[in-house]
User: Fold this.
Amino acid sequence: MTIQERVLEQLLSQFVDREAEMRRFCGMLDSDIKHIMLLCGESGSGKSWLLQKMMYECSQRSLRKAKVIWTDTSSYDYMWTMRAIRDDLGAGESSFQTFNDLINQYTDRTYSPSVSPQIVVNIGGPQTVLENASIKDANVGEIAHTIIKDNMFMIPRSDLNISVKELQLRLTGAFIKDLADLIGAKPDLPKIPPIVVFLDAAEKMSLDTEKWIWDELLRAVFEERLRNVKFIICGQRRHDVSPDWLITVEEAELQPLTKAHIMEYLERRGVNGDQTEMVAEWLLATTKGRIKDIAVQAEMYVRWRATQGIL
Amino acid sequence: MSETFANFQESIGRLSPAVDGSRVEILLRLIDQKTAELLRLSAIPHEFTPGILPILLPGLNDSDEMFEKVAAFPFITILNQQAVIHDQVRKELFISWLKKEKEDLFKATSNRLVEFFESHISAASGRERELLASKRMFHLTGADVTKGFQEFESLCRTARHQNRFSDCHSLIRLVHEYDPVLPEHFRANLAYHEAKLAADLRNWQSAEQLFSRIAGDETVDHELRSKALFRLGVVSSDQGQNERAVELYNQALQVIPKTLKDSSLAYRIGAALGAAYRELGQLSEAQAMLETSLKQALEARDQSEMATIYNGLGTLYSKLRNPRQAILSYTTSLQCLAASNDKLRAAQVHNNLGTVYSDHGEWQKAEEEYQRSLEISREGSDTWAQAKVLLNLSRLYQGQNISEKAIEVCQQAIGLFRELADFRKEALAQRNLGRLFLASNRITQARTAFADAISLFQRCSLIDEACGTQQELDAIGGVIGLPWWAWGGITLLVLLILLLILTLVLVT
Assistant:
């Protein structure tokens, strides 16, 4: 286990259960109608932690999943979002072949489009993801899979005059087709387990990426061109969902932690006995239940006790 | 209240004024100095790994152990094998690095980070390389704001030319982290890049706000103000507001510094002004402006801009009903494009040439130009351009009464617009197809095409267009779209029934 995994395990073990949100998430996984979950909450409300828990839930159910996390330095556009989803999901030579083939044609002048032997296969190193992680007795496993990638060029060929919009449409069309083939869900076939795609820190997406997510990617879910894929979008801003879409969208706003939650968290941090309730009340009053502030202030208290020799 | 908790609160109360009440700072005072220092330093990069800790704190020899200690704080998450401090906590810690008293240490650390990322760039490729370059730029700005900003502008321009708008967005956001210490002129330039990005993404409101702020700021240098006014004009023009565009282009020309009167900026503004005049029907002003700009572009031997101006002049002469001059201008534009090795833009000019020939009944030449345009667009995979040329070709065949060919190419254009999910243009083409069918007396197909056009117009919320097409459909009359032999059969049947009734009446 790497240091990073050990740290992640420790962080997860301190996570406070978000029962209501988790129930809605599990409900959506089983639903035939709801396919998109919007999870919003202000900075520090614990969205990313909740997302980790949801990913863990997927692992428990042996569901295939992909995650795309926007950070300050990695700003995924539509092409990289698709590539990231493909890399998390796509094991096997036949998956995402149309998409890979097309992206190569548009970015590599020397590439000859046609059939699989000409698709460049890069075998990535082992990809470590959060699997079999237990919240209480956390234990992070490791899976390795072979990733079939495209040439990973970034720029459309200079000898082409294809517009941004057309490139986007064609690549998205190919991606959706390949993803649908990978899932294999058909209306007349028995229900199969869904694939879950997590999109975190959506507030850091650029405007064009956000537009693509809703107008192209999620529209395929809404129009049932893509079945049995569940999307979880997590961000600070609420997205105005058009009334037509409400039937397929589950919206959840993260609520501040309650006193009971804070007490549970403190117990996990080793604050027990008669102190717990008092500290919880203080935290609730000074943080308004924001999980990040609670974490900082609880840490303050734990550290202060350590300096005083109190265990 | 227990004594322990009371003591805790008292301690916190003592620490608070010294650290401006910052919760994170209080926490840092409660932990050992080495961990606190490392945690503060870890907020300079956006992510950290055990490998980067000795760069942040030279001489650190227990980096794995310290990483585990630092990353275990509850406001730190592990993402893709890297530790990430929660946004707000990092922001709080990062801003404290921008204070004057920490400048030396911050610059020295930033310099080491620049070297660190630079050493990794050479071995990286593709996206990884771009990410490392943006991180390097971020720390270079911390070490030397002028060099860092130059690097930002270079990366941002490259990303923009490659249509990597998300990367532009990310680069701009990174530089904004230095807002509290960013000199005024860099801040104005940053806003300019932000505005250009907004305009690229057709976020007009945001683009206008940002450009207007720069244009109206007397402290900003004249060149940047002129550029902002020019871009504001382009934004207006793109929205069809040509009167406002003319006003803004004129202001841009007034503001431009004397030293730049003959620069590429000046003749680009002039060419845009000429085009806006032309759209407003002020053709003599348009001609004067385009010719002045052309002269400047010729002097600068700027083939690319010359091609644009000649193309603009071609359209102007076409409006002035001077086909000879229009053809000459378009042809010269094509020569300039060939000289600048720009094959792809030639498709548009060939299309324009085709239209001039077509307007003057030179069918064969028109067809040749349209076919040439189509060929270039096909080679360049430009489907929109192909669809537009096919529509023009359809009109050309229609003008020559070659109905079948006109219908065939119109259907091809519809197929392309459908592939591109461009419902508005598909609707327009469907309506045109309906008219072609109607002209060929193919009523059933005309009805279907009009009905398809109506539903597409409705899908795009173009209600007026939908109503207009409905009227065209209604005007076809009560003719039900059946073939002649069906109508013959119906007539015979009716006659037979009448004959039968008459016979029955006569018999009774």
